[in-house]
Amino acid sequence: MTGSGSGSGSGAGSAASAVFCGYCGKAVGEGDHAACSSRLGVIDPPRFCSQCARRMVVQVTPAGWTATCSRHGSTASA
Amino acid sequence: MTAAPEQVDVLNTAREQVLERGVGLSEEQVLQVLRLPDSRIPELLELAHEVRMRWCGPEVEVEGIVSLKTGGCPEDCHFCSQSGQFPSPVRSAWLDIPGLVKAARQTAATGATEFCIVAAVRGPDKRLMSQVRDGIKAIREDGNEIQIACSLGMLSQEQVDELVDMGVHRYNHNLETARSHFPSVVTTHSWEERWETLRMVREAGMEVCCGGIIGMGETLEQRAEFAVQLAALEPDEVPLNFLIPNPGTPYENYPVVEGTEALRTVGAFRLALPRTILRFAGGRELTFGDLGAKQGMLGGINAIIVGNYLTNLGRPAQDDLDMLGELSMPIKELSKTL
Ligand code: SF4
Ligand SMILES: [Zn+2]
Ligand SMILES: [Zn+2]
């Protein structure tokens, strides 16, 4: 199983075209991201942009999170 | 035939000492509890629950927390993904005032009585203090009566006084771990410096919230040491966190604390701190899962952080509120705390 580029409930610009793991920032096609997947969505918001692997600016609030890549814009929890 | 000398059982002793008289366990006694076999955990939790009901009552205090300033902290607490000294993926960010007001509103909507504003700093500077002042004012102007707590690191006397002036009700500053273990967890400041902030906070009349993190390589002896050191501080609240091994931190490969061990710790801390608000905080999702959270609530815990944590996600607040409903545990109301 490979990790998706973002946590559960992520909004625009994610999943289908994910090239990089949102938890470890490495290529989705390389290595095993099972542990990354289990952390994402359970206790971690995405930290790396799924399209360019830049570290994102993440704000966690009591009810959600937003993650912003300087190149690819913001993603938010549902 | 002479009878074997009667073995003094720590739970029997605790029943008389803690439950009946309200006197917390000694370090040696806490250690005995931490060494109880798994088979005695249910008995321990039952007693811890009775102690909590007797000395704290049935209500649960619900709190939400938000990070006003995330990441880039100059300190080197080895568990922390917000230290600027480690290659953690957490980037620095500031929450704006509208965001802070929204977070307070979301927290109040859960029925929480306490909203804690947290910043990843060694201690606050002028900019942070004025952000906090503006933030609290905006939360009040929004019509939100929730009590405000802060966690802004080490304070000067002047800053303590300023926070009192802003109407901050409780200050959180964790001692993190046993005094003897602290130097291997943090090297950029001392346990004593933390203690000094707590002393000023207490003397200024704010409530003291002080806890720590279980699972940072401390021995059972040190865990017992920590429990009685906290008891000596007589805090109003003790948040109990379980280590989340965060990527990039020196503790990233530490194991997650096992559920049974965590439950023993919860029970032991309740018996060491019979009257204190004992709050379930970070790491409970990894350590316990859903079932364990319930066991903890029935094992001495009487407060909970709902929703997300500062940089990590928690269970949806509604799941925890539903759990409290199932357990018939009433949420402490604001009017009763004011
Ligand atoms: S002082 Fe607080 S924010 Fe800074 S590294 Fe230590 S725990 Fe993290
Ligand atoms: Zn990964
Ligand atoms: Zn990007």
Automatic annotation (TrEMBL), chain A:
Cofactor(s) this protein cannot do without: iron-sulfur cluster
Keywords from the named record: Biotin biosynthesis, Iron, Metal-binding
Domain Biotin synthase auxiliary protein C-terminal, first and last residues per copy: 56-78
Transmembrane helix recorded as keyword: no
Coiled coil: none
InterPro entries: BsaP_C (IPR058605)
UniProt similarity note: Belongs to the BsaP family.
Function text: Required for the activity of the biotin synthase BioB.
Protein name: Biotin synthase auxiliary protein
TrEMBL record, chain B:
Start and end residues of each Radical SAM core domain: 58-284
Required co-factors: [4Fe-4S] cluster; [2Fe-2S] cluster
SMART domains: BATS, Elp3
GO MF: 2 iron, 2 sulfur cluster binding; 4 iron, 4 sulfur cluster binding; biotin synthase activity; iron ion binding
PROSITE patterns linked: RADICAL_SAM
Pathway field: Cofactor biosynthesis; biotin biosynthesis; biotin from 7,8-diaminononanoate: step 2/2
UniProt: [2Fe-2S] cluster binding residues: C116, C209, R279
Example of a GO biological process term: biotin biosynthetic process
Cofactor: how and how many bound: Binds 1 [4Fe-4S] cluster. The cluster is coordinated with 3 cysteines and an exchangeable S-adenosyl-L-methionine.
Catalytic activity: (4R,5S)-dethiobiotin + (sulfur carrier)-SH + 2 reduced [2Fe-2S]-[ferredoxin] + 2 S-adenosyl-L-methionine = (sulfur carrier)-H + biotin + 2 5'-deoxyadenosine + 2 L-methionine + 2 oxidized [2Fe-2S]-[ferredoxin]
Alphabetized Gene3D superfamilies for the sequence: Aldolase class I
Binding annotation for [4Fe-4S] cluster: C73, C77, C80
Catalytic EC class: transferase
Keywords, alphabetical: 2Fe-2S, 4Fe-4S, Biotin biosynthesis, Iron, Iron-sulfur, Metal-binding, S-adenosyl-L-methionine, Transferase
EC number per UniProt: 2.8.1.6
Family of this protein: Belongs to the radical SAM superfamily. Biotin synthase family.
HAMAP family in UniProt: BioB
Subunit structure, interactors included: Homodimer.
Function: Catalyzes the conversion of dethiobiotin (DTB) to biotin by the insertion of a sulfur atom into dethiobiotin via a radical-based mechanism.
PANTHER family attached to this UniProt entry: BIOTIN SYNTHASE, BIOTIN SYNTHASE, MITOCHONDRIAL
Protein name as it appears in the record: Biotin synthase
